[in-house]
Amino acid sequence: MGLFEPFQFEFMQRALIAGLAVAAVCAVIGVFIVQRGLAFLGDGLAHATFGGIAIGLFLGASIDTAVWYAIPFTVLIALGIGFVLRRTQLRGDVATGVFFSFSFALGVLFLGLRTATDRQIDVESLLFGNMLVVTPGVLRVVVIVAVLGLIVTIALWSRLAYAIFDPELAAISGVPVAVLEYLLLVETAVVVVVAVKTVGVVLVSSFVVIPAASARLVGQTLARTTVIALMIGTIGTGVGLVASFHLNTPTAATIILIHSAGFALSLVWNRLRR
Amino acid sequence: MSDPTTTSLAPSVVSVQRKKSALMLDQTRPDSSLPCVLDVKDVTITIRGRTIIDEVSFWIPKGEFVCLCGPNGAGKSTLLKAIMGLIPVTTGAITIGGESVSVGHHKIGYVPQRKGFDRDFPARAVDLIVAALRGTWPAKIKPEERERAKAALTKIGGERLLDKPLASLSGGETQRVFLARALINDPSLVVLDEPTAGVDARGRAELLELMTGLSRSDELAAILVTHNLAAVAQTAERIVYIEGGELLCWGLPSELLGQTSLTALAFQARDHHAHAPDEE
């Protein structure tokens, strides 16, 4: 079978579109998340998503409709992290770690409270995702959220960048720093919930962190860093998807290994440039 | 008057003695015929029930370089934040060129402490200066913006720094870039918040020279927060000294620094930034 022949199958076309959409929006948001020192945030919110989905399932939702419970729950967790960050001396990793544990424990608790007569759910697919089984309905939601996320982030890029560089200087220039920070957290929460549907709870934070961290090693300005993160995220996803098909390996994991290879190359580039 | 339901910073016995010492000093105020750039009038700032600044009043005329001094915890940073519009005043008013801070904040150029920003941010000096010009971070810099940033750096002898990544700059160079950034919008007031803190001896000397240049300007008013006695002696045209949130003295350096009691008063809190080991 030729290199690109897998895309004659509809499920591969859907996987490619969903993967590129998730990779693009996660990479662009990731630049700000990583620069803000919140690399752990993606992980924390993904586990909050698990908690939200578990609450939805407990309340009678199906695995597909539970996302509508997960979105408000994860947004609340994101706002909680933001509140602790702004109002206490705790660092981002500590604030995220507390909410991460709370949400995951809540998820396990609510899954445990389900009775034997309730519908069975595949916890493994929830944790690790499966891009190849993305339905047209899920694909529509993923693409809409990704496009909206990209529009919002690009529209606010200059203000977000200034606020993250130095909140005090940005505030003096009239940038609404607190509003932007909360907005970034809410946006990340929504994107992560939707991305969990395709790449799973465990792997979603890699889509946020690895392309942004790799780009940070190569880019000399924030604008270039953003473009490089976008390229690493989307190219890595395309290559990983094709490779996983031909090698018959798990899709999301293969993509993340390709992203990690990109990180290793960026590291080499960074060392050679010095 | 401050809110009686709030707790004021109770003056210690030492500060009562200092108040008495301060009252005995001559304190010449600015000439009232000069145009006022910064007017801090009966300002009280209460945060979470605690009075940090208590009925402080002073003003800075055009062209005057003022050093704002006081021990750690005196309320200098809070007052500075209020001047820049970052925190609201509880009572009283602060105006810049006759306008409230919320309107007039664009007339302020600000030089922060060196430690106050993320040195790992992927940015060049030109990005930082243009950000101040636009009020947002630049994704792409126009040729005319680049020229303005270059001109601002040239004014302070730092044109070679234009395209350098911020992370590669020394402490003195970084503060030089921040000074150019502060001057890019032709401000009427420059606020310098301990700009020599964390800068090595050479960088500190260079900055002091640049600040002395600012001090000689007849156009620009400046307010420098520092613990560094050498910086005060070299740049101050007037000194505002606050302690425990209250204004203790406001006068000429010759009146305040010449007095052994006040020199001790103002700087016995330890000139730690001037003598910190990492700065030598």
Summarize the structure in short.
The complex is a heterodimer of chains A (274) and B (280). Chain A is an all-alpha fold.
Q: Which CATH architecture of chain B?
A: 3-Layer(aba) Sandwich
Number of strands of chain B: 11
Q: What is the SS-derived class of chain B?
A: alpha/beta
What count of helical segments of chain A does DSSP give? 11
**What is the helix content of chain B?**
25-40%
Q: How would you classify the quaternary structure?
A: heterodimer
Which consecutive residue ranges of chain B, at least 5 long each, have pLDDT under 50? 1-13, 268-280
Structural features, described:
Chain A has helices at 10-35, 41-58, 67-87, 92-113, 123-128, 136-155, 157-165, 167-172, 177-218, 222-247, 251-273. With 274 residues, chain A is mainly alpha-helical. The longest helix of chain A is centred in the last third of the chain and has 42 residues, at 177-218. Chain B has 280 residues and is α/β, with parallel strands linked by helices. Chain B has one domain (7-279): 3-Layer(aba) Sandwich (Rossmann fold), CATH 3.40.50. Classes of the chains: A mainly alpha (274), B alpha/beta (280). Chains A and B meet through helix 7, helix 8 and helix 10 of A and helix 4 of B.
List the SSEs and their pairings.
The complex is a heterodimer of chains A (274) and B (280).
Chain A: H1 10-35, H2 41-58, H3 67-87, H4 92-113, H5 123-128, H6 136-155, H7 157-165, H8 167-172, H9 177-218, H10 222-247, H11 251-273
Helix pairs in contact in A: 1-6, 1-9, 1-10, 2-3, 2-4, 2-9, 3-4, 3-9, 6-9, 7-9, 9-10, 9-11, 10-11
Chain B: E1 7-8, H1 13-23, E2 36-47, E3 50-61, E4 65-69, H2 76-83, E5 91-96, E6 99-100, H3 101-104, E7 108-111, H4 125-134, H5 143-155, H6 171-183, E8 189-193, H7 201-216, E9 221-225, H8 229-235, E10 238-243, E11 246-251, H9 253-256, H10 260-267, H11 272-275
Parallel strand pairs in B: 1-3, 4-9, 4-10, 7-8, 8-9
Antiparallel strand pairs in B: 2-3, 2-5, 5-6, 10-11
Helix pairs in contact in B: 4-5, 4-6, 5-6, 6-7
